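Quick log. Single chain, no ligands specified.
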Amino acid sequence: MIDLSRYGSDDPIAWCPGCGNFGILSAVKQALAELDIEPENTLFVSGIGQAAKLPHYLRCNMFNGLHGRALPVAAGARIANHDLAVIAVGGDGDGYSEGGNHFIHAMRRNLNMTYLVHDNQIYALTKGQASPTTDKLTKTGTTPWGVYGEPERPLALAVASNCSFVARGFSGDQEHLTGIIKEAITHKGFSFVDILQPCVTFNKINTFKWYSERVTKLDGSYDPRNRIKAFETALEWGDRIPIGVIFKGREGSYEEATGLASAEPLAHRGPAMDIGRLLEEFK
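-> predicted structure:
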């Protein structure tokens, strides 16, 4: 196992004390260390938001881009260099609102990469507006009379899309979350993990206590290959919130289907044309 200090960063952490993001960061480091993945062999891609800051606090390759646009960049990087462990990171606003269309098509393409979504049911970076997963009737800065619409159920959407790997974790149970992230990274295909995490500043409803009283680990009798049962499980929300591997869908990654898996990565090949000669034409 790689020493955890290898993934450490000297950048000051801007999250609020007690934020659920700290547990996710620790679980990510632990998962990478236990899988013996060297920092130089990882690429984290993120958009905008508190969750998107996670790669800043890791020693790794990183691309920090536009709001909701992490997945297209991650897909391009994975195609260009499939030797890298590619992990996209975002929040529920970043991933399910601005990035909702990219999420659907990333599941459809089934590239061999991982998508971690920090789900605190609020827009935390911009001071607590309602997000796609905010519960109905919740009052926020943008919904003073309560949210009128139904909340998005991203796990159900993933099961309906026949996503290759669908799971949910909780930042308050780091050991369980570490195991889920490890399984997601080693899975061959698009792996999606929704991670419940409290926002201690702007969400006073979905607290650590609130989640701890509701999250329920799926036991060994649960079959993630049963799509109908997985869809029902993905829709459960309230007094019982299942966590664990919810669904395992389609097999055969994009890289395997296209032959990229056995080909030399594009990043390692020489230039396909004489760039110097091409530039000369513009003089």
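The chain is about 30% helix and 15% strand.
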